[in-house]
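Hey, I'm writing a tutorial for new members on how sequence and structure tokens pair up, and I'd like a real worked example in the thread rather than a made-up one. If someone can provide the structure for the chain below, I'll link this post from the tutorial.
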Amino acid sequence: MPERRSTVGGDGVPISSFVALGDSFTEGLGDETPDGALLGWADRLADLLARRSPAPLHYANLAVRGRVIDEIVNEQVPQVAGVTPDLVSFCAGGNDILRLGSSVDRIAERFEEAIVELGGSAKTVLVFTGFDPRNTPVLRRLRGKIATYTAHIHAIADRQGCLVVDLWSMKALQHPRAWSDDRLHLSPEGHRQVALRAAEVLGLGPVRSAPAPDTPQARVRQPQRLEDLRWAKEHFLPWLGQHLLGRASHEPLEPKRPELLPL
């Protein structure tokens, strides 16, 4: 197996540059600030890295919501070669997995091609498995497909010497408060938990904090069947029409942090 690349917890050299690649998960949907800006696990991880680095952390986030793996590989991956960061995160394929008729094996092959390319530029490559959708109506029917893709990602990481954040096994992500109302994107608490887990995988040491308390303003949940029907009507069916059936918004989307600049 290839030797693991240097991390904060490996040879003691802090990470001074970080580039995040991916789709809405990495862009930070579901983790909005009061003024409408997006945070997300990658921004939160960058903040943790900056606190451990003696020099200013340089950070770029090239992720764009709705992107499929071919778009991420063609549009985002080539930009890493020009900046050679200490750390690059790569999470892709989720939108492909959810599309009718998609091939898990083909998506995994494309994933590994990207990792090979990124490994020639970045010192450390951090990848993410799929989520376990067992508690999500409709999407739980794809659980076997997502599990197969997760197994592929672990195998690719072993072959290519990547670090892995195993989202599938994270108990914190099985709690309803880890998810936004749409159940498709993480909530601020979910993004926070992913950032903490990623920091641990990178060897930053003890960075856990107490779970966010439940708030008295939380919405009272209806009986589960009614709640699932409401979710399907308000969130899942519109999303299905946009992404699975090829009717995505034509709104031009750009990365929120396209250049590797000091945080």
